C-alpha cells in the first residue's frame, strides 16, 4: 500500500453529482485512511508503555504554549489526551498550521536527537495531557530496547514523508487542487470513518491556514466541492464523501 494518495489530475472536478468519479477519487476509502492514521502515525502499544515508564505526565489547559519555535528543548512529547496544535508564524506575520498532534503521537524527536531548537510552536487545544520524556532517559531506553528504537525511527520516517507531502502541496498553484490535496493530507492523520466517508476534524480557518489561502477563498472552494458531491460541510468538520457506484 502506498503511503500517499495519487495526486489529483489537472482538472479533477469536471463531473456531475451522481456520476462516476475519476480514478484519483476511487481511492478515497475510509478504512484505508483510518489504517494509515491510527496505525502508521502513532506509536505501538508496547512503545507507548515503555515511554510511560520513563516519562513524566503533565497537564496543560486550553491555549497553553508547550514550546515555542526556536526554544531549546531537551525532551520529547507524547500526547496522551487532547490535541496539540503545531504551527509556525510566516514572514508576513500570519500563522501557518502544519498539523495537529493527536493521542498516541510523539513530537520533538528530531530536536532531541540532534540537540537542536524546537522548529515550531506547540499549543494545547482543550485540556491536554502530555508525557514529557527527557533526552537522557529516552536515549537510555532506546539503547536497551531495539523495538522502541525501530518504532521511533518509523515515526521519524513518516514525518519526513509528511514534510515532503506538505512541500508538494505548497507548490500547487491552483487553489482547487491545493485545497483538495490539503484535505487528503489531513484525512490521513486527523480523521475518523463515518458511514458515508471520512470525517476530518478541522475548522475552515485551520484548513485555510494549512492550504496557504484566505478563509473566504477556501470557503468558496469548499462549497464548490460540496455542490459537486465531493464533501459535506459540518460544524468544525468536513466529510470527504465515499464515491458512489453508478447504477
Walk me through what this model shows.
- By secondary structure, this protein is of the alpha+beta class.
- It folds into two domains: 23-39 and 174-241, Orthogonal Bundle (Arc Repressor Mutant, subunit A); 42-166, Jelly Rolls.
- The protein contains nine helices and ten strands.
- The strands form two sheets. Strands 1, 2, 3, 4, 5 and 6 form a six-stranded antiparallel sheet that branches. A four-stranded antiparallel sheet has the order 7-8-10-9.
- A hairpin with a 2-residue loop joins β9 (231-234) and β10.
- It is globular.
- Mean pLDDT is 78; it is low at 1-40.
Salient structural properties:
single chain; 247 residues; alpha+beta; Arc Repressor Mutant, subunit A; Jelly Rolls; 2 domains; four-stranded antiparallel β-sheet; 9 helices; 10 strands; 40% helix; 26% strand
Total beta strands: 10
Spatial shape:
globular
Spatial extent as radius of gyration: 19 Å
At the fourth level of CATH, the homologous superfamily of the largest domain is: Jelly Rolls
The stretches of 5 or more residues where confidence is low (pLDDT under 50) are 1-40
CATH topology of the largest domain: Jelly Rolls
Which bin fits the share of residues in helices? 40-55%
Structural class: alpha+beta
Task: Output the helix-strand order.
Answer: HHHEEEEEHEHHHEEHHEE
Q: How is the biggest beta sheet arranged?
A: 6 strands, antiparallel
Counted by DSSP, the helix tally is 9
N→C terminal distance: 29 Å
CATH class of the largest domain: Mainly Beta
| Overall residue-averaged pLDDT value | 78
Question: Per DSSP, what share of the residues sits in E-state strands of 2 or more residues?
Answer: 25-35%
CATH architecture of the largest domain: Sandwich
The number of domains: 2
